[in-house]
TrEMBL record:
Alphabetized Pfam families for the sequence: GST_N_2
Species name: Thalassococcus arenae
Domain of life, per lineage: Bacteria
Name of protein: Glutathione S-transferase N-terminal domain-containing protein
PROSITE patterns per the UniProt record, alphabetical: GST_NTER
TM stretches of this protein: none
Residues covered by the GST N-terminal domain: 3-85
Length: 294
């Protein structure tokens, strides 16, 4: 048996995103099960699947543990995979990272309430309340403190649980064009450019439905992250590869980019790649291989 990680909608579930990024970035072996926010109440789905859990994310380990809180999951992963630097090795930086993660976990209610995570769009014209501005000011204070102490590029040097905890804040800064200073904006931009973040968002754009209760009544603008390589699904053409770059299964669905055609085993593999091809190392390696070598 393997550990099983239950995740919510990739476009909207900020708590799921935190754990999903850790699992991706640190190559932690888990089986993923997605919980459809539109199918039924999440609490009902989780109580049936993994009692006593009522929320996502939830981790069910092969030895029978059920962990139904994102920070608890992160701590448990750090304990079970001590060879992976989920927390900084330096004691001072590790203490800082734990403080950052804990404050994010318990605070910033105005930002959470007024600006729900929404990776499917970016707005213009949003005016934050005084309470949201106060949350942003506090976030800028602790980000600057951590970056000054560690020297970056992430909050406590290397990427850690603290950064995964704040990835949804970077997403909110992008979605709502929130007013932050240069240091905070640069740190948020690092998240938007991070391949694991880009893979998570690409999946959220093509998997699941648009949930209207997350929408806000503002005009939209282009997503402020890196411009992806242009690609599209196609029904015609001869693929350069015979096996899907992710599963190794025979190809059945096609994508075109730069005049070249590649195959994938299912529509999700194709569509998530088409959103942001260079975010996926297995496909990027395929793209870098001359056609005659495939």
């Amino acid at each position: 048996m393997t550990d099983t990680l239950f995740l919510g909608d990739y476009a909207y579930s900020s708590w799921s995103m935190r754990v999903g990024l850790l699992v991706d970035r640190f190559a932690i072996p888990v089986a993923r099960r997605d919980v459809d926010f539109n199918a039924a109440k999440v609490s009902d789905q989780m109580l049936r699947a993994a009692p006593p859990a009522r929320t996502v994310p939830t981790l069910v380990t092969a030895d029978g543990a059920v962990i139904w809180d994102s920070l608890a999951i992160a701590e448990e992963l750090a304990s079970r995979f001590p060879d992976k630097p989920l927390w900084p090795a330096d004691p001072v930086l590790r203490a800082t990272a734990r403080s950052l993660a804990a404050e994010m976990h318990s605070g910033f209610s105005a930002l959470r309430g007024d600006c729900p995570m929404h990776l499917r769009t970016a707005y213009k014209g949003f005016q934050p309340s005084d309470a949201v501005r106060a949350d942003l000011a506090r976030i800028e204070t602790i980000w600057s403190f951590a970056l000054d102490r560690s020297g970056g590029p992430w909050l406590c040097g290397g990427y850690s649980i603290a950064d995964a905890c704040f990835a949804p804040v970077a997403a909110r800064i992008a979605t709502y064009d929130l007013p932050v200073g240069d240091t905070a904006r640069a740190y948020a931009a690092a998240h938007l450019a991070d391949p694991a973040f880009r893979r998570w968002r690409a999946t959220g754009l093509v998997k699941g439905q648009t949930l209207p209760w997350y929408d806000r009544p503002f005009a939209t603008r282009p997503w402020p992250g890196p411009e992806p390589l242009a690609a599209r699904a196609t029904e015609t053409g001869t693929p350069e590869n015979a096996a899907c770059p992710y599963s190794g299964k025979p190809v059945a669905h096609l994508m075109e980019t730069g005049g070249r055609v590649f195959g994938f085993c299912n529509p999700l593999c194709r569509d998530k790649t088409a959103v942001d091809p260079m975010a996926w190392p297995a496909f990027a390696a395929l793209l870098d291989t001359p056609p005659s070598s495939l």
